Amino acid sequence: MNIKINNIPHFMQNEMKKIQLKLNPLLKKNMKYGFFSTIMIAFSLINLFFLLFNNDSYPISKIALCIYALVGAIGFALKKENKHNKKEIVKMSQKYVLERMKKSGYLTDARKNNYYQKVNEYPLLTMSVFIEFLAEEEQRKNDFSGNENR
Question: I want to staple 8 with a disulfide (CB 3.0 to 4.6 A). Which of 12, 82, 116, 121 is the partner?
Fold first, then answer.
């Protein structure tokens, strides 16, 4: 999840880096599982197809059939684990966002609850809601520090 963070403000970059550091081990594992599962499934299906349907003159080897089926089963298991890890990544990022919102001292509880509700109702939009939250928080910080200097 290497988000391109060059074009966003510095305060948002810091938060995105914190999320990436927290999710990085799981993201790496997820990418490996996705890659290997795709390769294993494709390898297994192609070889099973040729072994079963395009094998006119050679006898079908039960050992080869078992090996290709086993490779395919492992590939599908990795794919399922990959899907489970994606859900875990979403939960972890959502949990981080909610904890970060809770720590904010610049927004009112009503505004925080509004953001909590958005994150809980639309988990796929968590990052955009978080960016909106960070922008509002930064604006309130600037307003607060501007009022102190007067």
Answer: 12
